[in-house]
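DM from R.C. (forwarded with permission)

"hey, sorry to bug you on a friday — could you get me a structure for this? deadline for the figure draft is monday and I only need the backbone to look sensible"
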Amino acid sequence: MKITPLDIQQQQFKGKMLGGLDPEDVDAFLQSVASEMENLLRENNELKEQQARHNREMAEMGEKEKDLRETMLAAQRITEEMKANAQKEASLLVSEAELRAERIVMDAERQLGDLKARIEEVRRQKVQFEISLKALLDSYARQLSGDEQS
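My reply, with the result:
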């Protein structure tokens, strides 16, 4: 059975004829107990409210912690994906650079072949020119020696 401060205040005692209770002392004591009980009940309610508030705060903190963990995991996944993408991109760039380098080398080798062929053609033309010039000089020399004999 629960006793409230009001129950204590309204409690009546039967007095005895001889050596009974002093009603004023009893009333004063009951007022004191009722007041103390009222304070205790108020304090108890405040503590319950405080505990409920703390429980809510703890639940909120738990949610925040969970959200923070999820955010950290997401950030870690994104970082790993970014690393992987950067490595793929770097590999592609290296591959493209290697292909360009191969093309440059092939073009240089082709140009070298073309230059060698042109040099060979110029040498052949030089030899041909020298032969033609010698033949022409021989022809003029014969003509001059034939003119001198006549």
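R.C.: lifesaver. The chain has a mean pLDDT of 90.
me: no worries. Helices lie at 5-10, 23-149.
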